[in-house]
Amino acid sequence: MTDVRTAIIIGGGIAGPVAALALHRAGIAATVYEAYPSTADGIGGTLALAPNGVAALRIVGADQAVTDAATPMHRTALVIGANRVDLPVLAGAPPLRVVHRNALHRVLHQRATAEGIPVVHGKRLTGVRETATGVTAEFGDGSTASADILIGADGVHSTVRNLIDPHAPGPRYTGVLGFESVAAHTVDVEPGTMTFTFGRRGYYLYWSEPGGGTRWGANLPQDRPMSLAEARAVPSDDWRQRLWAAYGDDDPGAALIRTSDPDGLQVSGSLHIMPPVPHWHRGRMVLVGDSVHAPSNSSGQGASLAIESAVQLARCLRDLPDVPSAFTAYERLRRARVEGIAARAARINHAKAPGPVGRVVMPVMMRMLMKVAMKPEKTLGPEQRYTIDWDAPATTERALA
Q: Which residue positions does the secretion signal occupy (predicted)?
């Protein structure tokens, strides 16, 4: 085991609390520092947890509470105009779980509180001082905190990433804004089915909400990125008009927008991905979650990969003899897997706004893909069946992607 006994974690979203819980289980005391003044209620919409993400949550004792708050998706389908293709499923695998980010935050923070892990809000990191034996975080309010290591779980706009490497790449804008709402309209699909739809002018998805109606999300094409604050400053009626212009000629897109309350429209702002980050760690600082790997939402794996990485980092710190070897082993265990999944998602992302010809050709291509390339065990198996053996000692072995 390293001589690490304490850790500062910057970021209280998903990876931060999971890392704190896993470190606690490894015998390392962590404190989570979050820039927001309170748990980030209202920030973000629904996210997907793949079976591998739920398996990683099981290690920190949060799986049951999360699945209780989630909706299982047993089937997925792709629709382009009148053409529908049922996508393959992985035999014997648990269903995909969709859960609101707020609910996931609450579960993780409640679990951290139950384990006695401090979560301190209103602390925005501004700088770091390192010594041979520790690290001190400096916050915008003038306060400081010291520990053996510092973990950056502060998202795609990570401050810690830039402190590790001032030349590190930043997030790339995907060209779309995210929206979500619940419509009174009921779609004619079997409950537990997530439908991905390529409309005439944009991409959207939907599923039946257990409490009634239909939850839907849209990726609205937008030339320039907008911050969350900018996007939320736009009146809901203005966004509704833009959504109607994009999806009002689609079925069921028109009904979904028409029967959704504008005040209930969840605006997520610009969607970003992280390109490969050359340096995951330096000295006593290391990155985890979206700060170092944030694939397109097409992957369905963003949150799950963040949870996995948080657990693997704790495992390496538990078992390896010093900080450099622990951080190096952690990167070796994770890089190939997360970058491989990100590359697959990027290929899918290119097809999210097909033109008129693409709308005609894509159903044929997709059916060919179903028969020839998309063998679930080959394509989805390595992603969704992946589990972390917490009880096995971490070494410097290279993990399969």
A: none
Instruction: Express the helix, strand and coil content of the chain in percent, nearest 5 each.
Output: 35, 25, 35
Q: Are strands 46-49 and 71-73 parallel, antiparallel or unpaired?
A: unpaired
Calculate the alpha carbon distances from 389 to 20, 230, 322, 378 in Å: 18, 43, 21, 22
**C-alpha to C-alpha distance for 16 and 34, rounded to whole angstroms:** 9
DSSP for residue 386: -
Residue 337 included in any domain: yes
Residue 372: count other Cβ atoms within 10 Å of its Cβ: 8
Contact indicator for 338, 293 with CB cutoff of 8 Å: yes
Domain shared by 161 and 44, yes or no = yes
Is the preceding omega at residue 252 within 30 degrees of 0, hence cis? yes
Mean pLDDT (10-residue bins), the chain, 401 residues: 91 97 98 86 77 98 96 91 81 94 94 97 97 95 98 97 97 91 95 90 91 93 88 92 93 96 89 94 97 86 96 98 96 95 71 52 56 70 94 74 45
Q: Go through the chain and tell me how many residues it has.
A: 401
Indicate the pTM of the whole model: 0.92
Dist. CA 326–CA 314, nearest whole Å: 9
85: in domain: no
- Residue 130 counted as domain residue: yes
Q: Which two tokens stand for residue 93?
A: 């695998």
> Quick check: helix, strand or coil at residue 128?
strand
